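We give the chain.
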Amino acid sequence: MATEPQKTNLLNLLSENFTGNTRAIESLQESLSEVEPIIEYFTPSCEGFDTRIVALASSINNIKSEIVVLYSNANAVGCGTTVGQSTIRQDIVRNLSYEVSDETYVGDSPFDIITTTLSSGNVGYGTFLTFTQNDLTAGIGTAYANLQTCFGFPCISGICVSYASSIAVKESEIATLRTELNSLISPVNSIKTERINYHVRRYGDKIGIIELTAENVRINTAIAALNNPTFDPYT
């Protein structure tokens, strides 16, 4: 059992700690209120780049769907062969995001990565983008080989050549769209990478507030116990 001066000293210490924590919480709250608007500085640019990238990826895959139809129609009239056929696959832009990028995240693994497909519903978020051409996970149809050659009936050579020419035009359109899309990935990733520093600061502020608040709850419980006459024999 502590002597009365020791108990008094302990109460004073706990009170000082509580006061110090309270001041630290106030400071962290001020820091949090400062960093939130800074993060928003990045939002219009990140959303602008991402929105254009989504549109480009959508256009690419729409053209690929049109190519699938052309191949199917060509095959139906005897153009092309199943020997050497391949699968047409979508182009996919993925949004890789550290957990710390989520404004509500206060867990223990801030740099775990969450991967989603970039869409109109998540533009501007995340930490960086990746672009995969002809993604192996996303087959959408068949490309028949030797499309300019007639195979079977009914088959007219000129029609086969026309189908092949139409597909070549669309493939050229895809190449142009890919060039633009690729040109946007690096700039937006650079912007998002600079933003992550403020995400980390925001996360640190929130975690600090949570931990100090919990500590103050414990301190209050300890002070109440020391001031409770019931516990005098033990304190």
Summary: The chain has a mean pLDDT of 94.
